Amino acid sequence: MIQNDLPAIFRDYNPLEDKMFSLIDNDGHVINQKYMPTLDDDTVINAYKQMHYERIADEMAISFQRQGRMYTYTPNLGQEAIHIAAGMHIREQDWLVPAFREMGTLLAKGVTMKEMFLFYLGNEHGGSFKNANHTLPIAISIGTQLHHATGIGYSVKYQKKDEAVFTFIGDGGTSEGDFSEALNFAGVWQVPVVFTIQNNQYVISVPVKSQTKSVNLAVKSVAFGIPGIKVDGNDFFAMYLAYKTAAEYALSGKGPVLIEAFTYRLGAHTTSDDPTKYRKKEEETEWGLTDPLMRLRRYMEKKGIWNIDVEKLTEEYKQQINGQFLDAEQNKHYPHNEVFAYMYSEMPDDLKRQKSEYEQFLSWKENRR
Amino acid sequence: MIQNDLPAIFRDYNPLEDKMFSLIDNDGHVINQKYMPTLDDDTVINAYKQMHYERIADEMAISFQRQGRMYTYTPNLGQEAIHIAAGMHIREQDWLVPAFREMGTLLAKGVTMKEMFLFYLGNEHGGSFKNANHTLPIAISIGTQLHHATGIGYSVKYQKKDEAVFTFIGDGGTSEGDFSEALNFAGVWQVPVVFTIQNNQYVISVPVKSQTKSVNLAVKSVAFGIPGIKVDGNDFFAMYLAYKTAAEYALSGKGPVLIEAFTYRLGAHTTSDDPTKYRKKEEETEWGLTDPLMRLRRYMEKKGIWNIDVEKLTEEYKQQINGQFLDAEQNKHYPHNEVFAYMYSEMPDDLKRQKSEYEQFLSWKENRR
Amino acid sequence: MSVMTMVKAINNALDIKLKEDDAVVVYGEDVGVEGGVFRVTEGLQKKYGVERVFDSPLAESGIVGTALGMAVSGLRPIVELQFEGFTYPAFNQIASNVSRMQNRSRGKYTMPMVIRFPYGGGINALEHHSDSPEALYAHIPGLKVVIPSTPYDAKGLLISAIESNDPVVFMEPKRIYRAIKQEVPDEKYSLPLGKAKVIHDGSDVTVVAFGALIRECQKAIAMAEEAGISVELIDLRTIYPIDRETIRNSVRKTGRMVVVAEAHESFSVGSELIAITNEEAFLYLEAPPRRVMGFDTIVPLAQGEQYFIISPERIFYEIEKTFNF
Amino acid sequence: MSVMTMVKAINNALDIKLKEDDAVVVYGEDVGVEGGVFRVTEGLQKKYGVERVFDSPLAESGIVGTALGMAVSGLRPIVELQFEGFTYPAFNQIASNVSRMQNRSRGKYTMPMVIRFPYGGGINALEHHSDSPEALYAHIPGLKVVIPSTPYDAKGLLISAIESNDPVVFMEPKRIYRAIKQEVPDEKYSLPLGKAKVIHDGSDVTVVAFGALIRECQKAIAMAEEAGISVELIDLRTIYPIDRETIRNSVRKTGRMVVVAEAHESFSVGSELIAITNEEAFLYLEAPPRRVMGFDTIVPLAQGEQYFIISPERIFYEIEKTFNF
Ligand SMILES: Cc1ncc(C[n+]2csc(CCOP(=O)(O)OP(=O)(O)O)c2C)c(N)n1
Ligand SMILES: Cc1ncc(C[n+]2csc(CCOP(=O)(O)OP(=O)(O)O)c2C)c(N)n1
Ligand SMILES: [Mg+2]
Ligand SMILES: [Mg+2]
């Protein structure tokens, strides 16, 4: 089953044996020296800062939503190590095909918090990620995005481009037919796609154990003949090495890779959701002990490279993010043409007619006042 | 991965090691005494006769179609061992959820050749399998039927009935999202469903190796946490034991099972298809050597229980089948009410209106002559 | 009698049928512990157990396809799809099997199943959460498509849907899930499928609507009456099979019709209603029947939804234009 | 010029675009070695290689979903779905993504892709092989839906579809795949999407049709002319966006319209065309516009198809009734 030309971690952490690839423990101790990547201190510090930025942005977004200044929001709390590690390996020319819970990776691709806020304020211009090269909009219809990633994989392979594709799905998403189809196509076509399952153990209110009887999610790769690995998603270094390995593998032309990033959704599903209805506070507390930011900080402290003034940094980020939110919030410009303008490359007569009829109504309404 | 309470053959023939369960070779030698079922001679003779009946019926259907007396037909040639072995384990109260290439199993359930012919003559009454208890119609939209089987599995489990569900799909069908979804639901719900993949190595013109990169198809069971086994589909005894084991397993309440029956589509996809366009004659000849009827006959000859006068039997079956065909062919009764009658449990006014408008047209036409 | 929202009335209908009939099971994404994202199934799992009210894996084709299997084998499944935009993964099961199994099996199997889902705009939602796909399902022969506009109707229609041996697509106007409160009988009652209801008599213009837009039409009617236009308001209640008789009687009387619905206007329930008035009341028509409907565009996100959502004012505008034609 | 069937004309259009543009790729079930179950892609794999013309795994959602990925990243995929009844597994990709990606991305990504499939009855086929789902796709905003009725049109329209940056659903009337032979230019040409064509002038009744039924209409027109009724025949060619102008001009002239199509009549292209005539030519209508369409039933198997399929006689019957109204 396990091919010989697979990278070592895929062989050593065979999901069929239900192994999980982990490098540091909750206290920040290195538990697996063999695979520990050697990163220079700045890289690690920078990674921590990005995770921290995502955390703060998330918390602020939740609070803006609570203040009634924004519609439903989807928090990322607890899943930051995955997002930032991925972001560190997605190059300018690589493709990002997101689901809806990988904000840190989007930010790494050049998406701004202003855009994220605009999106959650109900403006399509937030969701288009105009300035993020090779980045698709957020995918809401679960599972469908994986096919897009596979198709892009075909494209870049066909065009002989040096580009990899990174795509994401949740644990629940693995139940959708599109998940299996897309991995199967990717296997047959041998395209350079890195699939990540963010297994945060919940599908809104439903625990992942009600989604499937497979021993873990990485093992599903066997059904499609592609390499798979289960990685500790709250361990920045494990995620870093997994993405490094996967990206190299994909870019070498060997085909797709499946990563299960095992994590925990520390927050609510969305700001409309109340997890106390379906899970115990103790469970949340327990998983809080595996917080990826905390683990990375402890590692840094042990290694003596912890030099971040968290309070100051938080203040700085808060100001920045707040500025972006205000910017987005003040953007009230939404002319009715926006509704019609992007449906087709050229507006068909029928849409023009509907638009002009609507304009007649608007002017009638204007005159009536 | 392999649970301890699995039946022995599932442990001994682990699809992860790409093993195939086989009991007799092409010459009819027993190659695996350990698992060879002890069947009384009559059972074996009877099985051969059923396989022979299916073969003859198939050949006649193809020739009726060639004579222009029937529309497109889907041959079963080469896959008879699977169908008859399954049929021998599906009891009256068990459910059969077919795809479209398991005629022998349908016949075992009580479907008549007359009905099969009626169906291919374009009459819905052929496809309804009225007298076959707990048998669903042929499923044409590939993959969808597996969900029906899983749903029935839920039903019988919920109602605490002593009923198992048998369902079929082709190798190509495993690429459809519904295949994965249905096996996944069945695993989560732990329902008594025996899933069979008839891997006849072709998906119309496309070889199965273009469908997936998985080492075999049985291994896909791993993705859903259910037991799977690859069985020599041209070996009647192996199929017999596989179904016996699977049915017992399912009925014991342990959940679903996946059987990959590895076989070869000896004939065309349908009578509209021309396999010479996409595969070599030599390949067909080579696979002809594994013909399940021939293998079983050789076994019987070696065992000294071969007492069938094939020519006589063939003649008898031909007459019988021909009678059924003529019966079906002469049935030209198809009143227009048939089009409307079964859409709803009670015909809605709107359909009544459409029907009566149509009748007005018919009488106008009548008067015009 | 209790005061109920539509959410409560639907919950109550489910409760009554679960209690009355062991064959009824309810499942879908988050319908168990959570009680559904809109809390429509709240409390039912506790009351009837995890075998009868349960969470399914996240796969709509699986939810609907397994329900077909249950329906042919003695159960009466009621499945919830989480939002209208997530019914499409199940489209193949619905269009290729659920709607066809009775005909395919020549009546050997019936299809006593209900597919429930919330639909429609006006809640400032993300994409796929604001659509009105009734025409898609109404065009598929073999289905019944039902949309209630009040808590009372929701309960009575849902009970009929559950008791029907035909597959019913039951679309719930999420915008008014909790917006309307009404006295609803506690005991069981049912309302016939396939029957529209005249909910306001009038003589000048017939307005046909359903679901959440009935409320908006009522506001528009008040404006119209102030302007001296007498409006007859028909709540369609069942989209297929459509109640031609009620439409015919009204339009023959008024000679004018305005259809109000949120779906994209092309190839819609509006188109069908105009066709019907032409077939049933051509000689009575005094003005071209009008569609006041959604544009042929994606429903915009919250900031743009004001343009898409149909206001009482816009309905009034069209009523007046039709009246003055 | 060469004499071509529709199969050949489509093959020729694909050939021209494959040759001209490296970004064009063609795939689907059996389209490679086999050249498609109807041989529409015959010879193309040999000519352009397995990277440009290839067999995909059996999964329609995958076929369409991957095409979207290709379309956003520089290719112009043309996918074949094997039959209309097997487009539904891809319905979610079509309705939730293909039709929406341009709008969702505010034009950052365009959707230069074509989804081709054979459709319609009249070939004595099994279930799911005789349907006419054009209304389903035409109701989804963001798509264009095209149906040719001749080899010449098929080639010209398909070339436009391939060159369009919008996603096009290209439906091929399988009944006339080989039934009509026509002189077709060998070189490249294109016909505009969104434009209907008057293919027979007349003054008494407008008949609107498309696809395989144009031929049946032509036979009916001959019957009508014998009976002294002058019929104008419009070939719609594009179902969405629909060409209101051509309909308007014709119906304002004739005052009468009969729509002929094989799909189930409710919520159909027939409903839409009646709505359009009401909006565009109400005061000119002298008789109720009529639908001559399929029943709201599953298309019967071969033995019952005679009742479902629309004959020239039935078209004539309705033309006459409309004329004599
Ligand atoms: C096709 C589809 N069905 C249902 C939904 C509604 N929905 C949104 S998020 C969600 C749960 C997703 O769980 P998971 O895949 O584990 O991702 P997570 O939210 O945990 O990141 C559901 C059911 C959807 N968006 N798309
Ligand atoms: C959803 C769907 N897509 C396409 C088809 C057309 N089709 C009919 S049979 C077939 C090939 C099936 O191959 P396989 O699953 O291996 O079964 P086999 O025919 O070999 O028994 C295809 C593509 C279909 N029936 N259903
Ligand atoms: Mg999750
Ligand atoms: Mg096959």
Give me some keywords for this one.
heterotetramer; A: 369 residues; alpha/beta; Rossmann fold; 2 domains; 7 strands; 45% helix; 8% strand; C: 325 residues; 7-stranded mixed sheet; 5-stranded mixed sheet; 12 helices; 14 strands; 20% strand; globular; binds thiamine diphosphate; binds magnesium ion
Overview in brief:
The complex is a heterotetramer, with 2 copies of chain A (369 residues) and 2 copies of chain C (325 residues). Chain A is of the alpha/beta class and 369 residues long.
Q: What is the second-level CATH architecture of the largest domain in chain A?
A: 3-Layer(aba) Sandwich
Radius of gyration of chain A: 22 Å
- Average pLDDT metric of chain A: 97
At the first level of CATH, the class of the largest domain in chain A is Alpha Beta
> What's the helix-strand series of chain C?
EHEHEHEHHEHEHEEEEHEEHEHEHH
Please, what is the oligomeric state? heterotetramer
Head-to-tail CA distance between termini of chain A: 75 Å
Structural class determined from secondary elements of chain C: alpha/beta
Of all protein chain pairs, which has the greatest interface, and how many residues does each chain bring to it? A-D, 44 and 46 residues
Number of strands of chain A: 7
Strands of the biggest beta sheet of chain A: in what spatial order? Answer: 1-2-3-7-6
* Strand residues, percent of chain A: 5-15%
- Main sheet: strand order of chain C: 3-2-4-5-7-6-12
- Percent of residues of chain C in beta strands? 15-25%
Report on the structure:
The complex is a heterotetramer, with 2 copies of chain A (369 residues) and 2 copies of chain C (325 residues). Chain A has 369 residues and is an alpha/beta fold. Chain A has helices at 8-12, 41-66, 80-87, 103-108, 113-120, 124-127, 144-158, 177-189, 236-251, 281-288, 292-303, 310-330, 337-341, 349-368, and strands spanning 95-97, 165-170, 193-199, 202-203, 206-207, 228-232, 257-262. Chain A has 2 domains: 3-330, Rossmann fold (3-Layer(aba) Sandwich); 337-367. In chain A, helix 9 links the parallel strand 6 and strand 7 (257-262). Chain A is globular, with a radius of gyration of 22 Å. Chain A starts with 7 loop residues before the first helix and ends with a helix. Chain C has 325 residues and is α/β, with parallel strands linked by helices. Chains in contact: A-B, A-C, A-D, B-C, B-D, C-D. The complex binds thiamine diphosphate (2 copies) and magnesium ion (2 copies). One thiamine diphosphate sits between chains A (101, 140-142, 170-173, 198, 200, 202-204, 265, 269) and C (29, 58, 82, 86, 89). One thiamine diphosphate sits between chains B (101, 140-142, 170-173, 198, 200, 202-204, 265, 269) and D (29, 58, 82, 86, 89).
